[in-house]
C-alpha cells in the first residue's frame, strides 16, 4: 500500500499545482475543501435514516449507475441516498440531481480520508460503478463489514489485476461483497483469480437508454423540419478525425445518392471547435446550418448538413436517424453506441472500439459495421441506403441485442443486501 499511497500523494500535489492554470483542476480542489464539515451538515436531516452510498467516477459511470440508484429510491423511499463523484465533470453536471439526497465529491483516497468519510457517512450499503477500485475505501468498508458492490464492471487481460505487479489490486477484490459484471469474459477472468462472488448481469446502461427511448419527448421540431423527407445520417459525438472523414465522404455520397442529409453533433461544442467543424464543411463545399443560428438564416431547410452545437439533444435525436455514425473511433475510443441502439438504428464506427463489449457483440451480430477509412464509410452507407434487406437485417440485429441484454438492474436489485 505504500507505493499506492505515495502515488496518491503526488497526484494530489500535481492537481493542486495544476489548479492555478486549469479550471477543471481548480474545481476538483475547491470541491473538496472543508469536505468533512460540509458532509456532516448535509447529512444532518437524515440522522435516523438508512444511508445508501453510490460512487461514480464521472458522468458516464453515473448513467450506468443511475438505473440502480433510481430503483433503490423506489424500493427504499425513506432511505438517504448519497451520490459521490471523483471528477468535476460528473459532479458539476449532477450536483442538482433530485434522485439523490446528498451529492458530493469523494475525498482523495488516503487512509485518513477513507476512515473519516466512511465513519461520517455510516452507509448501510456501498455501490461502486464499473472501474472504481479505491483501495483505502474498500479496506475501510470491509473492516466495517459494510456490504459493498461493484456494478456493471468489465475486466480485461490488460488490467493490473492480471499482471505480475497487480497483487495489491487483486487483494482488494475480496472487499466486494459481490461483483456484477457485464460479460462472461469478465467472470472467467475473475474466476482465474479465485473470485467467485460474481454474477454476469449485463450493462445497466441498456436499461437506462431503453427508458430514455421509451420516454423520448424532447422537442426536435427543428431537426424534423431539417430532415423533411430525407434519410438522416446522425454523426454523434464526433472528434476532429471524424469530421475530417465525414465532410468529403458525405460530399461524395450526395453525388451518388439523393435524398440524404447529415447531422453532426460534435463532442465539444465550444466556439473554437465549432468554427473548425464548419471550416471543414466549407472546404468540402457543403451547405450547412448551425443550431445556434436557427432563425437567422432563411435557407436552413435547403442545407445538407445540420451542426447541432448544443448539449442535451443527442440521446433523443437518434430517434430521427436512419443510420448512426458513432464518433471517437479514430481518437482512442468510441462514444456510447447504446443510445442509438435503443432506437434500433444500424451503427457505423471507426476501429478504436476494442474496449467496448457492446461494440464487439453488435459487430458479431451484424448490427454494427467497422470502417477504417473514407471509402469504407461511403461503401457501407451506399449499401444501407440502397439495399433495404440489408438495412432491415442490421436494424433487427440491433433490436435483438438490446432485447437480449436488458434487465441488468432487476438482477442486481435481487442480490443487494444491507447491513
Keywords:
419 residues, alpha/beta, Rossmann fold, 2 domains, seven-stranded parallel sheet, globular
Sheet with the most strands? 7 strands, parallel
- Distance, first to last CA: 27 Å
Quickly give the CATH architecture of the largest domain.
3-Layer(aba) Sandwich
Q: What's the mean pLDDT score?
A: 93
Fourth-level CATH superfamily of the largest domain: 3-Deoxy-D-manno-octulosonic-acid transferase, N-terminal domain
The overall strand count is: 14
Looking at the chains present, what oligomeric state does this protein adopt?
single chain
Give a description of the structure.
With 419 residues, the chain is α/β, with parallel strands linked by helices. It folds into 2 domains: 2-212 and 407-413, Rossmann fold; 217-405, Glycogen Phosphorylase B (Rossmann fold, 3-Layer(aba) Sandwich), CATH 3.40.50. The chain is built from 19 helices and 14 strands. The strands form 2 sheets. The chain has a 7-stranded parallel β-sheet with strand order 3-2-1-4-5-6-7, with helices on both faces. A 7-stranded parallel β-sheet has the order 10-11-9-8-12-13-14, sandwiched between helices. Helix 5 (88-94) links the parallel strand 2 (80-85) and strand 3. Helix 3 runs parallel beside helix 6, helix 4 crosses helix 10 and helix 6 (111-121) crosses helix 7 (135-143). The radius of gyration is 23 Å and the shape is globular. The two termini are 27 Å apart. The model has no long low-confidence stretch (mean pLDDT 93).
Amino acid at each position: 500500500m505504500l507505493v499506492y499511497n505515495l502515488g496518491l500523494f503526488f497526484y494530489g500535489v500535481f492537481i493542486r499545482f495544476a489548479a492555478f492554470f486549469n479550471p477543471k483542476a481548480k474545481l476538483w480542489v475547491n470541491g473538496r475543501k472543508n469536505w468533512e464539515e460540509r458532509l456532516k451538515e448535509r447529512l444532518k436531516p437524515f440522522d435516523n435514516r438508512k444511508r445508501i452510498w453510490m460512487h461514480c467516477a464521472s458522468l458516464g459511470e453515473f448513467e450506468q449507475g443511475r438505473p440502480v440508484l433510481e430503483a433503490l429510491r423506489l424500493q427504499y423511499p425513506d432511505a438517504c441516498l448519497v451520490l459521490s463523484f471523483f471528477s468535476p465533470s460528473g459532479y458539476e453536471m449532477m450536483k442538482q440531481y433530485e434522485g439523490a439526497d446528498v451529492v458530493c465529491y469523494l475525498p482523495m483516497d488516503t487512509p485518513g480520508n477513507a476512515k473519516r468519510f466512511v465513519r461520517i457517512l455510516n452507509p448501510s450499503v456501498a455501490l461502486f460503478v464499473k472501474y472504481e477500485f479505491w483501495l483505502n475505501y474498500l479496506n475501510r468498508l470491509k473492516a466495517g463489514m459494510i456490504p459493498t458492490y461493484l456494478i456493471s464492471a468489465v475486466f480485461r487481460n490488460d488490467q493490473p489485476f492480471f499482471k505480475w505487479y497487480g497483487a495489491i489490486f487483486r487483494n482488494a477484490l475480496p472487499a466486494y461483497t459481490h461483483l456484477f459484471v457485464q460479460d462472461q469474459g469478465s467472470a472467467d477472468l475473475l474466476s482465474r483469480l479465485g473470485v467467485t462472488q460474481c454474477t454476469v448481469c449485463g450493462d445497466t446502461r441498456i436499461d437506462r437508454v431503453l427508458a430514455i427511448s421509451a420516454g423520448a419527448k424532447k422537442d426536435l421540431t427543428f431537426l424534423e423540419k431539417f430532415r423533411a423527407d430525407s434519410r438522416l445520417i446522425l454523426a454523434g459525438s464526433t472528434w476532429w478525425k471524424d469530421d475530417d472523414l465525414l465532410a468529403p465522404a458525405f460530399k461524395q455520397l450526395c453525388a451518388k445518392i439523393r435524398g440524404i442529409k447529415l447531422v453532426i453533433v460534435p463532442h465539444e461544442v465550444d466556439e473554437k471547435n465549432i468554427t473548425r467543424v464548419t471550416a471543414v464543411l466549407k472546404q468540402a463545399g457543403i451547405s450547412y446550418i448551425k443550431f445556434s443560428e436557427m432563425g437567422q438564416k432563411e435557407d436552413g431547410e435547403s442545407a445538407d448538413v445540420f451542426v447541432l452545437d448544443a448539449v442535451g439533444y443527442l440521446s433523443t435525436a437518434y430517434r430521427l436517424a436512419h443510420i448512426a455514425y458513432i464518433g471517437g473511433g479514430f481518437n482512442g475510443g468510441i462514444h456510447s453506441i447504446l443510445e442509438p441502439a435503443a432506437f434500433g438504428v444500424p451503427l457505423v464506427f471507426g476501429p478504436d472500439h476494442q474496449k467496448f463489449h457492446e461494440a464487439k457483440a453488435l459487430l458479431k451480430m451484424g448490427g454494427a459495421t467497422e470502417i477504417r477509412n473514407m471509402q469504407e464509410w461511403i461503401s457501407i452507407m451506399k449499401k444501407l441506403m440502397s439495399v433495404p434487406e440489408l438495412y432491415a437485417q442490421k436494424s433487427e440485429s440491433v433490436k435483438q441485442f438490446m432485447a437480449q441484454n436488458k434487465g441488468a438492474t432487476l438482477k442486481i436489485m435481487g442480490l443487494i443486501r444491507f447491513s
